[in-house]
Amino acid sequence: MCRFRSERIQEAYTFYRDNVTVTLSRDFVRANGEGGKQAKVLKSLPTLDECVLFDESNQWLLRASVEVTEEKAGPLMQRGTEELVRLKKDLVGFHELALLDRDVFDTRVRAFLDNARRR
């Protein structure tokens, strides 16, 4: 599946294992150099032949995640973590995964939150 994501086009493949979602992806930009500063909205998705890889090393991003809808439900969080740990063990020798704290994906500015808590 390919889709337009702001100035980049993402090629992505998604797989499911129990409750774990695994996504392999890589990003492309338009070959004419307009990838970063596009003056107009595209009316159609360019073909991959019209694009170049954003990361010239041609590496794919592997993301594994479990969605927990109730963050206050401790047992659900624990079970999700256990499923990710099982996947990590199964991929030993193939790919090294690191478990990150969910706060890493928080889009709010950390300094602003720290200042707000001090008030």
Description:
The chain has helices spanning 74-90, 110-118; strands at 2-5, 8-17, 20-30, 51-53, 61-65. A hairpin with a 2-residue loop joins strand 1 (2-5) and strand 2 (8-17). It is an alpha+beta fold and 119 residues long. It has one domain (2-118). The longest helix has 17 residues, at 74-90. Strands 1, 2, 3, 4 and 5 form a five-stranded antiparallel beta sheet that branches. It is extended and about 50 Å long. The mean pLDDT is 76.
Descriptors for this entry?
extended, five-stranded antiparallel beta sheet, 119 residues, alpha+beta
Low-confidence stretches: none
The proportion of strand residues reads 25-35%
Number of helices: 2
Categorize the overall geometry.
extended
Count of individual domains: 1
Q: Quote the distance from N terminus to C terminus.
A: 46 Å
The run of helices and strands is: EEEEEHH
For the residues shown, what is the average pLDDT?
76
Counting DSSP E segments of at least 2 residues, the number of strands comes to: 5
* Class computed from helices, strands and strand pairing: alpha+beta
Q: Please state the oligomeric state of the protein chains shown.
A: single chain
**Rg calculated over all Cα atoms:** 18 Å
Main beta sheet strand tally, sense and closure: 5 strands, antiparallel
Report helical residue fraction: 10-25%
SSE layout:
Blueprint: E1 2-5, E2 8-17, E3 20-30, E4 51-53, E5 61-65, H1 74-90, H2 110-118
Antiparallel strand pairs: 1-2, 2-3, 3-4, 3-5
Care to give the gist of this entry?
The longest helix is centred in the C-terminal third of the chain and has 17 residues, at 74-90.
